[in-house]
Amino acid sequence: MELARDEEKALDGKYDEALASAYRILVAIGEATDAQKLVPVKWAHISGVNYNTIGDGGMRFLEKFSTTAKVAVKTTINPMGYDRSKPEDISPSFQERQENIASSYERMGATASFTCTPYEVFDLPQKGTAVSFAESNAAVFSNSLLGLKTNKESALSALASSVTGKTPLSDLRLEEARSPKISIETDFDFRTELDYGLLGYFAGKSVKDSCVALNSISGLDTIQAKALCAAIGTSGSCGMFTFGGKSKEKILFGKKEAQSVMDELSTADDADIITLGSPQLGMNELGLLAKLTEFKKFTKRCIVFCSRAIYNDAIKIGLASKIEKSGADFRCDSCTCLTPYVTKDKYDAVITNSVKGAYYLSKSNKVKVALKDIKTIAEEYTQ
Amino acid sequence: MIISNCRRIVGGTGEGKTLVTMQPINFLAMVNAKTGTITDSLHELHDKSLRGSVLILPYAIGSSVGAYAIYSLKEYGNAPSAVVCSKVDITTASGCALAEIPVVDLPDGTPISILKQGLKARVEADARRIVVEFS
C-alpha cells in the first residue's frame, strides 16, 4: 500500500505514538485487504465500549491512547455496560472501570452516544459516503439499506479511522465487492422478525464473501431489517446483502435450515427474564411493544434496551410511560450483548427475540436462551 | 522447510512452537487473555495455551472487539510470538498490529496442513517467509 508523505511521517511516529499506532493498524489492514491507498471517511462508529468486551487490557490502552489522540472526524460510540441512572445490580468495580472507558472516549472527543443503532439516532450522510462502522449490525444496515460504504470494521480499525480520518480503500469500499457472487434462495414463509434473524445468521455463516444476495425477500419493515442485519453481522464476515442479484452459486434457505439455526441458538423453552434490544430498540419497535402490551402486565421481568436519545424521544410522546405501565423496565446506553444485567448466577436462561443477543448470551454470558418473536413473547408473558 | 512468498501483514520476527488449527478462532468468545488458553470446549485447541507459540489458523471470526482480545493477550504476556493465517481478517490484522505481533498470510494455494503441530518455527514477516524446524 502506498502512503502519502504525511501519512508516512505519522506512521514513523513523527507526531505522536497514538497516531503512529493508528497508522500501524490501518497499514496492516491495508496489507490484509490488498488496498492501494488510504481514503477519507466522514464518520467513525467505534465498538469496544462495554467493559465486559475489552476488559482491563482495553481499558488501560484507551486511557493511554486518549491522552494524546483526538478524533479527526465525527465519532460515535457503541453501548456501554450499564445505565448510569440505574446502577443497582452493577458492582462498584464494574461501574468504576466502565466510567474510566467512557471518559477515555469522551477525552478523545467522541460523542457519548452509547448506541449500536447510530443510523436511527443521527442524521444520515448522503448515499455513497465513506464511513467506518465497527458495530456489525450498523455496518450491514448502512451498506445494504442506506447506501453508505463501510467495511465490517474491527473495534481497532474504526478507532484508527476516527483519529486519522482515513481507511484503506478495499473490499466493500470498491464496487466489485458490492456485487454478490453467492445468493441465498429462500423457500420459507417469513412471518416474524425472528424468521429474518434466522435467515441472517444462516447467510452470515454460509457465505465467506463480503456481500450476499438474498432472493425472494422484499418489503422488510424496520424491525425485520434490523433483525436480519444484526444476525448477518454476528455469524461471519459478511458485511452487506442485496435484494436479489445475479450470481452463479446458490444456497437454499428453507424450513430445515431455519430449524438448524433454532437448534443451535434456542437452547431453552422458557426462562425467568426477557431482554429486548440487540440491536437497541427504535421508535418503531417501542410503538409495536406498546401496542402489544396495552392494558396488560408482563408476568416475568422484562428489560428493554434502547439508546438514551430514543428513550428521551419516547418520553416526549408518552410512549415510554405506556411501556413502563406494562412492567417492562428500560435500560438506556446499554444492550443485551455481554450485559452485566444478566449473569449466570442469577439466571439460567433468557427469553429474547434477538438472534444476535442469543449468540452472545450463550457464548459470553453462558446462559441458555429461549428464542421467540416479539408477538409471541407479548402473548405468552403478559396478561 | 522454508515457506517463502508469504504476504507480510504485520512486520517483525517471532519464533516458537507451531500451534496449528484448521478451525477459525473467535478471540472475544473463545480466548481467556489472563491465562492465554482457548476456553471453548468445542474448539480443537481447547485448553491449549497460545503463549509464545507460532499460531497457525485459517482466520479469526466473530465480534469486532476480538482485536482487543488479541491486544490483551499481549498485555498479560500470553500472546503468540507470531501468527500465520491462510487468509488474514481485519480483526487479526488490527489486533496484532497494535500488539506488535508479526503476521503473515500463507501464499495462495498453500494449505495449513503443510504445517505440523509442535515444530520449532520462525516467522520472518519482513522477509515474507516461515522457517520451520531450524536449529
Largest beta sheet of chain B, briefly? 8 strands, mixed
- The sequence of SSEs of chain B as H and E is EEEHEEEHEHEEE
Strand order of the largest sheet of chain A: 8-7-6-9
Strand content of chain B: 25-35%
**First and last CA, distance of chain A:** 61 Å
> Beta fraction of the residues of chain A?
15-25%
Q: How much helical structure, as a percent, in the residues of chain A?
A: 40-55%
What would you report as the Rg of chain B, rounded to the nearest angstrom?
Answer: 13 Å
Shape of chain B: globular
Broad structural category of chain B: alpha/beta
Report the uncertain regions of chain B. Answer: none
Largest interface: A-B, 36 and 35 residues
What's the overall average pLDDT of chain A, rounded? 96
What does this structure look like?
The complex is a heterodimer of chains A (383) and B (135). Chain A is α/β, with parallel strands linked by helices and 383 residues long. Chain A is 43% helix and 16% strand. A 4-stranded parallel sheet of chain A has the order 8-7-6-9. A 3-stranded parallel sheet of chain A has the order 3-2-4. In chain A, strands 10-11-12 form a 3-stranded parallel sheet. In chain A, strand 13 (349-352), helix 14 (355-363) and strand 14 (368-371) form a beta-alpha-beta unit. The termini of chain A are far apart. The mean pLDDT of chain A is 96. Chain B is α/β, with parallel strands linked by helices. In chain B, 18% of the residues lie in helices and 28% in strands. Chain B has helices at residues 27-30, 66-75, 90-99, and strands spanning 2-3, 7-10, 13-20, 31-32, 37-38, 54-57, 82-85, 103-105, 120-124, 129-132. Chain B has an 8-stranded mixed sheet, covered by helices on one side. In chain B, strands 4-5 form a two-stranded antiparallel sheet. In chain B, strand 6, helix 2 (66-75) and strand 7 (82-85) form a beta-alpha-beta unit. In chain B, helix 2 (66-75) packs parallel to helix 3. The chains are: A alpha/beta (383), B alpha/beta (135).
